[in-house]
Amino acid sequence: MPQEALKNLFVAGLSNAHAMESQAEQLLKRQIERLDEFPDLKARLQTHLDETYRQQQRIDAILESLGESASTLKDTAMSLFGNLAAAAHIPADDEVLKNSFASFAFENYETAAYKSLIAIAESAGVPSAIGPLRQSCEEEEAMASWLSSQLDSVTRRFIQKAA
Ligand SMILES: [Fe+2]
């Protein structure tokens, strides 16, 4: 692929990641509002919300280094996750479970997106982007792994509370 096309692919990928992180922000905020009964989950999501803001800033900085303005990007809702984000709005008895599944799926999606972006950055010859993208990728992986480790105990606590 010619260098110009690689750069375009990278910018398109960064724009998608920008939209993805906007969705992440919404998904996290909606859950944090409603997680008073699961304070440890709430605290970890709050920490990840702070990480998400920094991830957004990293994407903006890379876009700006490429001469693209992040502020003009339209964050079109990703259809894959539109329903998940909407579901986080609906009060349901088992919302903590559904949201845990959705968050786990979302964090894995984000990890995949960053892994791909790192490969594109290498191919497109933008080495300065690799460190920040790797940092975000590691944060997503850590979040996915933590959520996975909590599914058992969150489910058991949900059962106890429902009893
Ligand atoms: Fe994330």
Automatic annotation (TrEMBL):
This is Ferritin-like metal-binding protein YciE. SUPFAM superfamilies: Ferritin-like. InterPro entries: DUF892_YciF-like, Ferritin-like, Ferritin-like_SF, YciF. It comes from Rhodoblastus acidophilus (Rhodopseudomonas acidophila). Coiled coil: none annotated.
